[in-house]
Amino acid sequence: MKNSPALHNPTTSLDPEIRELHQFAALADSRNTQRAYLADWKHFLSWSKKRNKSPLPADPDDIAMYLRYCAEKLKLNVSTVRRRVASIAEAHKRNGHASPCAEWVVRNTMRRLRRELGVPARGKSPILVSDLKAMIANCPPSLGGLRDKAVLLIGFAGAFRRSELVALNIDDLTISDEGLVILIREGKTDQKREGRKVAIPFGKSPLTCPVKALIDWLEAARITTGPVFRAVTKFEKPRTTRLSDRVVAEIVKKYCGLVGKRVARFSGHSLRAGLATSAAIAGASEASIQKQTGHKSLLVLRRYIRDASFFRENAASKLGL
């Protein structure tokens, strides 16, 4: 995301050395955050230009008007509108302006939008073990099918984010007597790039063993260096290019559809959520689940654990109805 510093105003007169310093600091954010900031800022610039408003520095009243436009006219959800506020504030800070988003009219506009338009966060449904087994059974014996099976099983067993899964290289894999150790060199919450290791044990059945599925894919595709997960041509040949995180979501949705699931309720994140939820149902400790998922916040992790306990510890199930 070399273009992320575009949040800087090109007309702002800055010493070249200071501008380079600001651009360096701007890249502290993750790539996804940089991408979101830039997209939001471009939208606000377009909106301002059409109405002959100043985007930088922006008038708090104009920002409040823009937020209502996003929520009421464009029907964006409140979480997206809240991110727009953060992006506008970030652009002002990067250009040496106090954030107008802290003004009363902006804050209270957001408060009212949250109260009147906000809905409880509804994340994607988790893929449970029974779901995963059914999905795996639908993977064809083709090269693409072997890859999809490895993506599903490794993504689930490692509770990986899509970005972590597609970033894997052969050098990140180490086979041991107990299974596979995977090095995640850069994760969403690993801003210091310290990396973390995730253990994937051998499965009890060769049909659903994540380690075997990965080895089968690598051997069939003859991959010995470079990206682990790659695109496959229509002639069943592996490409040299890395798989995109979007394709991971498409793989999940494809096999959810094949087993009769409501595709719209699932995404690439369903693998990660599924491991946390399934492990909680099986009685795994918070600490062991957190170690596998790499969650920094227990509060976030407990959302999955709480959902898993709805039926396992349900008072109504004790009534004999």
Q: Can you say what the CATH homologous superfamily of the largest domain is?
A: Intergrase catalytic core
The helix fraction, in percent, is 40-55%
The number of helical segments is 13
Count the E strands: 5
> How does the major sheet shape up?
3 strands, antiparallel
Task: Describe the protein in words.
It contains 13 helices and 5 strands. Strand 1 and strand 2 (about 180-185) form a beta hairpin. The chain has helices at about 15-25, 30-50, 60-75, 80-95, 105-115, 130-135, 145-155, 160-165, 210-220, 245-260, 270-280, 285-295, 300-310; strands at about 175, 180-185, 195-200, 230, 240. It has 2 domains: about 5-115, Orthogonal Bundle (DNA polymerase, domain 1); about 130-310, hpI Integrase, Chain A. The strands form 2 sheets. The protein has a 3-stranded antiparallel β-sheet. The N and C termini lie far apart (about 55 Å). With about 325 residues, it is mainly α. Helix 2 (about 30-50) packs across helix 4 (about 80-95), helix 7 (about 145-155) packs antiparallel against helix 9 and helix 11 packs across helix 13.
Topology:
Blueprint lengths: L15 H11 L4 H20 L9 H14 L4 H17 L9 H14 L11 H9 L5 H15 L4 H5 L6 E3 L3 E6 L11 E6 L8 H12 L8 E3 L5 E5 L2 H14 L10 H13 L4 H8 L4 H15 L9
Antiparallel strand pairs: 1-2, 2-3, 4-5
Helix pairs in contact: 2-4, 3-4, 3-5, 7-9, 7-11, 11-12, 11-13
Brief rundown of the structure:
The chain has 321 residues and is mainly alpha-helical. Helix content is 52%, strand content 7%. The N and C termini lie far apart (57 Å).
Please give a handful of descriptors for the protein shown.
single chain, 321 residues, mainly alpha, DNA polymerase, domain 1, hpI Integrase, Chain A, 7% strand, disordered N terminus
